[in-house]
Specification:
Belongs to the UxaA family. With about 500 residues, this protein is an alpha/beta fold. The chain folds into 3 domains: about 1-80, Archaeosine Trna-guanine Transglycosylase, Chain: A, domain 4, CATH 2.30.130; about 125-245, Rossmann fold (3-Layer(aba) Sandwich), CATH 3.40.50; about 250-475. Helix content is about 30%, strand content about 20%. Strands 19-20-18-17-21-22-23 form a 7-stranded parallel sheet, with helices on both faces. The chain is globular, with a radius of gyration of 23 Å.
Length: about 500
């Protein structure tokens, strides 16, 4: 008999743990339901009859409305379930009591910076101001990395196509995200490579970087250099001698954790995301910083985050952030519900409400302490909400620019992508973890059989090892990318 997971007593659907044929027996909370259709693993089976227009409930909240009569045993998916999302809304401040969170005794070996921040890597990053010198930055980094510089974990270039033909806020956002990356503590030193004639002038970019950070930043203008690659490599060697460092023991209160999901499936909200939520609370409870983003993927679950605002001011800023994002969609003629992706749908997720209710679980139970704009840094202990879209590369880059030193990335479908800081890939299901060990670092599917406690401790141990220098799958594969959110016109 196939089992199905019924999350909340109020739910009208349950999630299948394996494929079931037509007429197959499904066990739900000790009772047997006969499947009226062939239903795939991770998809939903109705456990209560539903009338047209009636709310379909999962996680204890509506995930949309039935578009036709649904009988017990029917598959509940795109043919009979539709989103109920609309545009901008008025929200009510209903603050929940702050939970009591405690951290464990978790530690890692990190690099303590002069400003007190702690890094999980001591690398030299090469950042181009403009796409015209992207390959130049790559060559400088490759040459520098080949030197195997003592006390340096690696030399990496993070290239992009922007920095010119941009105007106003769009150019300012590109500059701000690059400045944020230049300030990430994992970059022991930074070489900024400019072309010379671009809109994103080095002087203006450097002005975005705090004065005390500029001591570990070197700049190069390619149009003014006789041999820009040789000069760039010389700057890397100069920096390496200045920023070489050794690791020291620190606790998780010195960790800055970014949390992200991508390529989600029907198990993401049942296994990987709630497991990451426990880690968010563990790090935040210890006094560390946790950053959550991908704002369009809280649509339908935003009130849950708003209820966790630490103050009326934080609540108001969450409301503004959510409604501004909805306005951004509507101003481009797009519905706010244009999600989930084809891969999400194939994996069992039907509506954005369902996806969002699973996604927000990465934020755990903590109060939202702060709300920050795209390209800005998280500065407070606890949970920070960061402005960025759902796109994996754009939002993960924003997490790194906000100061994350480790990213926990959950996935049900799998992705090889990696980002500037160590990115731990967490599979929502054991089949993916077994099929893609070259992509996946941790199998959250184990919680279905073993429960959350053992998995939480195992994941904390893995985070400690990665923060201490163990490579993630993405790092072993050389997967390190950035992407910048472009919202303006191109000249």
């Amino acid at each position: 008999m196939i089992k199905a997971l019924h999350i909340d007593p109020r739910d009208s659907v349950a999630t299948l743990l394996d494929d079931v044929p037509v007429g197959g027996a499904v066990e739900v909370d000790g009772r047997t339901i006969e499947s009226r259709a062939a239903i795939g693993r991770g998809h939903k089976i109705a456990v209560a009859p539903l009338a047209p227009g009636e709310d379909v409930v999962k996680f204890g909240f509506p995930i949309g409305r039935a578009t036709q009569s649904i009988a017990v045993g029917d598959v509940v998916h795109s043919d009979n379930l539709a989103t109920g999302l609309v545009g901008e809304l008025d929200y009510t401040f209903m603050p929940a009591a702050a939970p009591h969170l405690t951290g464990g005794q978790d530690q890692f070996m990190g690099y303590i910076r002069a400003d007190g921040r702690v890094a999980t890597r001591n690398e030299i990053w090469v950042l181009p101001t403009v796409g015209c010198v992207a390959r130049t930055a790559d060559r400088i980094a490759a040459r520098g990395n080949a030197l195997a510089l003592p006390g340096i974990d690696g030399v990496h270039a993070f290239t992009h196509p922007f920095g010119c033909s941009q105007l106003g806020d769009d150019l300012a956002a590109t500059r701000r995200i690059l400045a944020g990356l230049a300030c990430n503590p994992n970059a022991g030193g930074v070489v900024i490579v400019g072309l010379g004639c671009e809109s994103n002038q080095i002087e203006q970019l450097m002005a975005e970087i705090p004065a005390d950070r500029r001591a570990v930043v070197r700049t190069l203008v390619a149009q003014q250099a006789e041999d820009e690659v040789e000069q760039g490599v010389a700057l890397v060697e100069q920096l390496a001698a200045y920023v070489a460092a050794t690791r020291e023991p620190v606790a998780f209160d010195r960790l800055v954790l970014g949390v992200k999901c991508g390529g989600s499936d029907g198990f993401s909200g049942l296994t990987a995301n709630p497991l990451v939520g426990r880690m968010s609370d563990r790090v935040g409870g210890a006094g560390g910083r946790v950053i959550v983003t991908e704002i369009p993927e809280v649509f339908g679950a935003e009130q849950m985050l708003m209820n966790r605002a630490a103050s009326r001011d934080v609540f108001d800023r969450i409301v503004t952030l959510v409604n501004d994002f909805k306005s951004y969609f509507l101003s481009h003629g797009e519905p706010v519900s244009e999600n989930p992706s084809p891969g999400n749908i194939a994996g069992g997720i039907t509506t954005l409400e369902e996806k969002s209710l699973g996604a927000v679980q990465k934020a755990g139970r903590a109060q939202v302490i702060d709300v920050i704009g795209y390209g800005h840094a998280a500065t407070q202990s606890g949970l920070t909400l960061l402005e960025a879209p759902g796109n994996d590369a754009v939002s993960s880059t924003a997490l790194a620019a906000a100061g994350a030193t480790v990213i926990l990335f959950t996935t049900g479908r799998g992705t090889p992508l990696g980002f500037p800081v160590p990115t731990i890939k967490i599979a929502s299901n054991s089949a993916l973890a077994a099929r893609k060990p070259n992509w996946i670092d941790f199998d959250a599917g184990q919680v279905l059989n073993e429960g959350f406690t053992a998995a939480e401790d195992a994941l904390a141990g893995l985070i400690g090892r990665v923060a201490s220098g163990a490579e993630t799958a993405a790092e072993r594969n050389g997967e390190r990318e950035i992407a910048i959110w472009k919202r303006g016109v191109t000249l």
